[in-house]
Amino acid sequence: MDGVRIGRVLRALRRRRGLRQSDIAALAGISQTGVSLIERGHWDAIALRTIARVFAAVDARVVVDVSWRGGELDRLLDERHAALVGLVAARLRRLGWVVAGEVTYSEFGERGSIDILAVHPPTRAALVVEVKTELVSLEATARRLDEKVRLARRILVRERFGIGPRLVGRLLVRPEISLARRQVSRLEDAIAVHYPRRGVEVGRWLRAPRGEMAGLLFLSLNNGRAARRTSGGSQRIRTAPRRQTVREARVLVARDVPDSHLPAPGLLSDGNDER
C-alpha cells in the first residue's frame, strides 16, 4: 500500500466531512497522534485493523491488494478455489444431491455467478454454495449470498433443474487453514448471525435437509486425495460416483415426492433446461 496516498485520502475525506483529527480518533478508538501519523504516511507501526477503523469513521473501506510474480497470484488463488469447489461438489453428489457448478445469472440488473447450485430430489431442497478462499468483507459476502439465495428460490433452480424448491439452504465454504480459522474467530459474533450452523450440524442437514439452513463449513484440500492408506498399509481406491443428470433428478422428484407437493405442470418437462 502507498502510505503517502493513504494519508492524503484520509485527510481529504476527513475535511470533506468537516471533522478534526480528534473526532476521527474518538470514532476509531485511537489517539489523535495515530490519526496524524496515518495522514502523514507513517502507518507502518499501526495495525491494519486500526487503519480500517479509522477509514470506517469517514465511511470508507480499506482494501489490501497483493501483487506477486505478475499474474501468478490470481492463478494460485483460482487453483485453490477450484479445488474447494470440486471437493464440495463431490461431497454433495455422494449425499444424493444433483450439482451444477458456476451458474451465472443476470436478472433485474443483478449479475453474478454461483459457485455451486444443487438440488436434493427426494426432499426438493436447494442449496446455494459460496466458496471463499479470501474473505475480504463479511457484510459484502453475506449480502451477495442473500441475493443469490433469493434468485435461486424464485428463478434459478426452476430454470436449471426444472423444479420449484420447497426450501433453500445457504453454505459458506472456507479452506481449513489457520488464517481462515483466526479470521472467523475474530468475527465470530457477526458470522454467527449470518451462518449459525457449523460442521456436524451442516453435515446432518446435507444428509437430510429439513427447514432453511445457513451454515459455515471448513474443508481441507488434503481431503481430496483419491487413495488413502488403511491400518494394514494397503491402499483403498475410492472411485468417483456417477454424476446424476438433471433428467434423472426430475424422475426422482416425480417418484419420491407426493403428488400434492409436485410443481405445476410443465416444470418437470423435458424442455431445453440444461444450459
Structural class by SSE content: alpha/beta
The CATH architecture of the largest domain can be named as: 3-Layer(aba) Sandwich
| Assembly level | single chain
Low-confidence stretches: 224-242, 248-275
Order of strands, main sheet, comes to 1-2-3-4-6-5
Number of domains: 2
* Average of pLDDT: 79
Rg calculated over all Cα atoms:
23 Å
Q: What's the CATH topology label of the largest domain?
A: Trna Endonuclease, Chain: A, domain 1
CATH classification, class level of the largest domain: Alpha Beta
Question: Helix and strand string, N-terminal first?
Answer: HHHHHEEEHEHHEHEEEH
How far the N terminus sits from the C terminus, by CA atoms, comes to 42 Å
Structure description:
- With 275 residues, the protein is of the alpha/beta class.
- The chain folds into two domains: 54 residues, lambda repressor-like DNA-binding domains (434 Repressor (Amino-terminal Domain), Orthogonal Bundle); 156 residues, 3-Layer(aba) Sandwich (Trna Endonuclease, Chain: A, domain 1), CATH 3.40.1350.
- The protein contains ten helices and eight strands.
- A six-stranded mixed β-sheet has the order 1-2-3-4-6-5. It has a two-stranded antiparallel ribbon with strand order 7-8.
- The longest helix has 24 residues.
- It is elongated.
- The C terminus is likely disordered.
Q: How are the elements arranged and paired?
A:
Layout: H1 3-16, H2 21-28, H3 32-39, H4 48-56, H5 72-94, E1 98-107, E2 110-120, E3 125-131, H6 138-161, E4 167-175, H7 178-186, H8 188-194, E5 197-198, H9 199-207, E6 213-219, E7 227-229, E8 235-237, H10 246-256
Parallel strand pairs: 3-4, 4-6, 5-6
Antiparallel strand pairs: 1-2, 2-3, 7-8
Helix pairs in contact: 2-3, 2-4
